[in-house]
Amino acid sequence: MNELLLQIVSQVNVGVLILDKSYRIAIWNQWLTNLTGRREEEVLGEKLIDLYPRFQKPIFSSIFENAFEAGQNRFFSGAFHRYFIDPVDDLAKKYVRQNMLVQPLQINSEKFIMIQIFDITRQQYRVDELKVLIRELKIAKEELEVSREMAIVANKAKSEFLANMSHEIRTPMNAIMGFIDLTLETDLDAEQKNYQIMVREAAHSLMNLLEEILDISKIESGQFSLEQKPFELTSIIKSAFDLLSLKAKDKGLSQRLTIAPPIRDQLIGDSKRLKQILINILSNSIKFTPKGEISLLVEQVEETEESVQLLFKISDTGIGIAPKDQPWVFEKFYQVDGALNRSYSGSGLGLAIVKQLIETMGGRIWLHSTVGQGTSFFCQLPFKKDKTTTCHSIQEVIKQEHVKDHTFQAKILLVDDDPFNRKIVGAWLKKWNYDYQECENGSEALVKIQEGYYDLILLDQQMPGLLGTDVVRQIRKDQQYSTVPVVVMTANAMKGDRERFLSNGMDDYISKPFGASELQAILKKWIPDERTGE
Amino acid sequence: MLNPLQQDALKEYMNVVIGQAGQVLSEMVNQKVYLEVPDVQLLQTRDRFILQELVASILKGHVVSSSLRFGVECSGRARLLFPVEKGKKLVNLMIGDEEFSDHSTNEAGFSDTDTDAMKEIGNVLLNVIIGSLGNLLSTRIEYSLPEIEFLFVEGVRQDPFFHPGHYTLVLRNTFVVGEERIEGAIFVMLQMDSATRLIEKIDEMLVDIYE
Ligand SMILES: Nc1ncnc2c1ncn2[C@@H]1O[C@H](COP(=O)(O)OP(=O)(O)OP(=O)(O)O)[C@@H](O)[C@H]1O
Ligand SMILES: [Mg+2]
Q1: CATH of A229-385, one of 3.40.30.10, 3.30.565.10, 3.40.50.300, 1.10.3720.10
Q2: Nearest Cβ partner for A80 among B28, B105, B142
Q3: Interface predicted TM-score (ipTM) of this complex, two decimals
Q4: How high is the mean pLDDT of chain A?
Q5: Nearest to A26, CA basis, from A114, A85, A103
């Protein structure tokens, strides 16, 4: 048994060293021999401090005493002491790390000290490696921080430069454009006129680019602030929408604008920027949609005591944006397929401006898109409520403009007992290329309406027999004709008449005598597909 | 609970004791390490709330504990405790690893070497404290090997520090290394009779002082 224990002590994978009461070495195991090159026979009976003078130092000697006297253990770490028993290899001294554990032992009344030595060189090596890594990481992080700051400064300087330059270029550009317009007013032959028009177009797109660059650099260099002014939401939206509706019509696109109630109309914020945002996104929709429809839906998604959150959804049925391109479209100068044979105009700044504006306004923008099917942009924007005006929630606004096929002509029924009047109005309608029929009293009109479909009925009020209002009452009874727009023509429009007519089922009225432009406005309003001779 | 006089006497005694530990540590790391004990209390189960407050003020969250058990005539367990980041900072300061002593790096984690160092610091300190308690109570003590634990301390749970039927000697202690002050705590759990004898001894000291 004793033999076995001795073998164990000899073989364990730590250094084991036993001292007797007089600090002489009583056991020295194989591990220590391997470490020091000193065999057991050489060291047995020697005093530890003679072999290793460092143990004379008070931190050690007092510990040994404590172990004998008070029975205390003591753990020494390589972190503080490096090593305790020197390795035979001098080179190894540079790297070796050890922990040491000092414990009292007592057999009967005889006291001993057991010292165990653990090699932690590998552990220390790992820790050091880790520290090097951490240090490198820290340096890299600092460098990154510095270059990031430098980039910010550089970008700001660039933006300031651009802002100033664009501003400087804009002034002479304005002059150039002014003189082109003046030149166009002079007598030019066809060829000259043609060239001038091309110059004007080029100047316009250059000017557009300048405006965009000016915008983005102002935003980026921080020379830009948002207005906080009261405005009417619906009128801003409509004016943005109207501005682009001609372009859409030219391309043969249907358009739809929906402002869904309940929505707060009296708001405070930067309406100019709102309009700019909408115009930018809408003009993209039109530009990238060869056929189909573009639409704008406005909803109020949140309302608090002080403010509202509005959601604008701009959808098109255009070419779409592939998922891989979607994250990039808000980047400056990014254009999908920006390569050589790009068939779309523009500089790739529009959405970058939009995004910056929206974020400065405290909102966000995102998009859904499927290639070949279309794109929807969503912008959510906060606005303050304008509480100075008493407000009423607005009615639902739905504007639709459908493009009808080209053979279609709007049909108009003109009802008036006065032949002179019928002649003038008829002449205009003919000039503007409307298909129209006329009749001279109410009952005749009712028959005609039964016979065919009309896009609009122009109806005199004061007629022998049935009055205009009587005719409308009859028409509206029939479900089929309940939506045909009816505009009443009346000579003696007075205050309150309008309400009376409208409540009688008329859609609008025009007071006699009226001019061509008034009539045209009415026609445009009720027959949305513009078809005038102008 | 100790009365203010007893408390002062115990505090003075502990400051002397812990000063010795400071000397040992200073020699060990070749720089001045001062140890201060600004506050000493002897608490029992019914003083739980005081302990809770203390724990909440200095030992919340992840805590490193270096501990020793002791036994025979006086038995219990002693712990040196630091919030992990402070423990790490102390180790870095004592190893002289300045670069890593600012804890803005998220290296609150202890490496194996750090853990060893903390084990030794605890060992030195707790040996001195328990040794001196043994001297004071004139009793023989057996010591276990030092242990390191990483604990998570929540508000209400005081388990590792407080055992029903035991007294807990609570020392707040501050390590002063160079410019830095690092606060931790030492908890020594004592059996009832050891605690009673400790109070008797304190009273004897008071008599010595006032006579
Ligand atoms: N509705 C859309 N459908 C398909 N692609 C779109 C749509 N809107 C934007 N894109 C893509 O995103 C790119 C970036 O749009 P952005 O408005 O920033 O630039 P642009 O319209 O090309 O030029 P700019 O607006 O400056 O005149 C566009 O070039 C286009 O490739
Ligand atoms: Mg665009």
Answers
A1: 3.30.565.10
A2: B28
A3: 0.84
A4: 85
A5: A114
